[in-house]
Amino acid sequence: MPVVSVGMPLGPGCSTCGYCGPLGERSSTETSFKKAGFIASQLSCRVYQKMIYRGWRRSGTYCYAPDLRRSCCPQYTIRLDAIAFKPSRSQRKIINRWNHFVMQGHKSEASNLLLLQGISSSPKPPKSEGNASKRDPPIFSLSTSIHAAESDFISPNATVRHTFKVTLEPSTYSEEKYALYLLYQREVHHDPYNTPEDFKRFLVKSPLINEPIPYTTSPPDHLPSQYGSFHQMYRLDGELIAVGVIDILPECVSSVYFMYDPKHDKYSLGKLSAIREASLAREIHNAGAISMTSLAMGFYIHSCQKMKYKGGYSPSYLADPEKFTWFPLADCIPQLEKYRYAAFVHPENSLEGPQDPGEGPPVHVSEELLDEVMVIYSMQQGAISIIPINLSHQWNDEYNREEILSCVNALGDELAREIIFR
Questions:
Q1: CA-CA distance, 66 to 55, in Å (whole number)?
Q2: How many CB atoms are located within 10 Å of the residue 196 CB?
Q3: Per-residue pLDDT tens for 29-63?
Q4: Three-state DSSP state, 353
Q5: Strand, helix or coil at 191?
Q6: Which end of the chain is less enclosed by CB atoms within 10 A, N or C?
Q7: Rounded CA separation 417/369 (Å)
Q8: What is the pTM of this model?
Q9: What is the pLDDT of residues 342-368, one digit of tens each?
Q10: Going along 347-417, which residue ranges are E strands?
């Protein structure tokens, strides 16, 4: 039985900005705008996939569509082609540095390990000259390299300094995860005030309903069997050192959040997690779920250095903020450099200068579409009755009507027909 997507529409809003203020602070004024919001009771993974590709994101069960035209730091939806992705030299070094640490430890740990194995740690003699010493560089395999140091992938007889394990589990609460979240927020984001409920609301609760992944072959044990919301758990010697909060959807793995123990900061675990999530999407694709092709990396903010790094993963694409068609990031850069707000399909709509241009023209939604957008009329003994939203009591209230119109407009015709409002 298909999953029914249900939620409550919310209208436009604004808030302070966390991207252009000083580290650990937000802007002093409300300069980040949203076209619409949506409190999701439940969503099919297919519907949320479509929402992401129309510029929506979720924070717990709250979904929102940024208003790029009005915001100080426009947030462009970015996706990485996980099938074509080839890690750069610096990204390969990140993988290799972490694998080396897990297998051999720090330099001092590595020396002790070699002594235990009866191997001298003295420098190797120089290679002899000539063709015999030349070797072709090894062919890099993303999935092989990303799993090379994991305990489930290495030989049981291998001698390693640390035990590293990565597992997927449903998005659930634990004191261990909450403690890591507190540490990360305090040390990295200078945000010391977070309750268990804050953590649950932000990173545990999800409206996504799990659905089976239609593999055409029997997948390896480490791959998920269902679409839905997950926590990717990173453990080093049994200690939880990082958690990747991800949504696994029919066409992409969607990065929601990543938190880690700052004592491992020098290993660039955030960048490593993006590579790992791209590999996960590729592995799911290669196991027979061929619609899985991308890593949805959230938002690319050209004016914010801490979000601009996402452009280093290639080939990446940005969604046009008006038509939601995809453009290679490299082709978008000249406009992003020139304009605060860049429209790629209609560049004449681009805007210079930091000032908010104000509200656009009133939202218009055709009567034909409103006849097809449904709202819950009643619920009795598990049975739901629905009616067209323009016949509901919500429609008679001017404030509610504006919220409905804003949400329907931001969702687009197709999605608005697929979601039942309440």
A1: 7
A2: 13
A3: 999 999 999 999 999 999 999 999 999 999 999 99
A4: coil
A5: coil
A6: N
A7: 8
A8: 0.92
A9: 999 999 999 998 889 998 888 899 999
A10: 374-380, 383-388
